[in-house]
Amino acid sequence: MADDVTTRDVAASPATSPARGAAGRTSRVRPAAPARGGRRGVNSQLRKRLEIVFFVAPALALFGLFVIVPIATAVQMSLFRWKGIGPLVDFVGLRNYVSVLTNDVFTGAVVHNLVIVGLSILIQLPLGLAIALLLNRRMWGQSALRTIIFVPYVLAEVVAGVIWLQLLQPQYGVIDGILDAVGLGSPEQGWLGDPDLALWTLMVVLTWKYLGLAVILFLAGLQGVPEELYEAAQLDGATWWQVQRKITIPLLGPTLRTWGFLSMIGSLQLFDMVWILTRGGPANATTTMATFLINEGTERSNFGIAGAASVVLFVVALFMAVLYQQLILRRDTRPETGRN
User: Fold this and answer.
1) Where are its TM segments located (predicted)?
2) For a tag on the chain, would you pick the N or C end, based on fewer CB atoms within 10 A?
3) Which domains does the chain have, with CATH numbers?
């Protein structure tokens, strides 16, 4: 009985029974209209996409104008024999590429670029790291020494090249004067005039010019090494060399690899310092891929050959960049979970 009474009360309660009007008819309550969240969501997504397009479009336009268009123009030019006057009508296909790849001067230029890449890393890496470790300590004149080392890098290549061209002048240059004063003597043809010494002399100038970048990058990387690790190593009785080998160099690894990539790409594209100092001479002893294509284009008006050489330079640089990325930079770009 109690259950029946409860059931009737609940059925007759205003909260559970349909509402009745003045005439006794039951009035049905209309369900609430659905919110317009779907349309708002679509508008929000559209607004975000428009914002992305608005901010990315200028950068893409500049990239296409100054990167994609020149590359396409160089590829088009490389398929024609063209002297720089008139339209491109003398189509030669891949003959310009065959001429470039079978040219002894160009193959020698590729070798010179690779030698500069290797020597730049082998010389500047240990030297820059040693100077960075030295300047990372507190010492008198630390800021002045950092500035002195970094100044050559911020100098324009033209200015630096002219300075060294004057210093290396045969007989009348400052360097030859100092060597003659101490009785060492100097090459008769000059440091830049001897085919056996020109490339090595160029490497000295390049090391002086770009060592500051390595030092500054390494110093910046050293600031990220926690001091607690050094203190713990000292408490454990580790030597200075053990601290550098076990703590500093491993934690400085991403900076070292990034600098190596920048040095490699810069060495492959090297032009201005070589052009100012030697113009690729003597006897093509310092010719690079960039000086070769500039000489073919501006000096000999072989724009088809120059275009083919520029495409080959682009392919070589791209190949080495991808190879470096896969072999060396891969550990810095893959997720943390994938690392050993």
Assistant:
1) 52-72, 114-135, 147-167, 197-220, 259-278, 303-324
2) C
3) 15-77 (no CATH), 96-339 (1.10.3720.10)
111-124 CB burial, b ≥16 within 10 A, e <16: ebbeebbebbbebb
Evaluated on CA atoms 81, 84, 88, 89, the torsion sign reads negative
Q: Contact 79/96 with Cβ under 8 angstroms? A: yes
What is the SS3 assignment for 233?
Answer: helix
The residues, ordered by sequence, that sit 6+ positions from 218 with a Cβ below 8 Å of its Cβ are 128, 129, 132, 252, 255, 256, 259
Separation of alpha carbons 161 and 155, rounded Å: 10
Tokens (6 digits) for 247: 């703590």
pLDDT for 5: 40
Mention every residue, 6+ apart, whose C-beta is less than 8 A from residue 136.
Answer: 219, 222
pTM of the predicted model as reported, rounded to 2 decimal places: 0.80
Three-state SS at 211:
helix
Burial of 307 (0-12, 13-18, 19+ CB in 10 A): buried
Amino acid 12: pLDDT: 45
Who wins on pLDDT, 1 or 261?
261
Q: What string of DSSP letters covers 83-148?
A: -SSS-S--B-TTHHHHHHHT-HHHHHHHHHHHHHHHHHHHHHHHHHHHHHHHHTS--TTHHHHHHH
Beta bridge partners of 19: 27
| Rounded CA separation 193/283 (Å) | 9
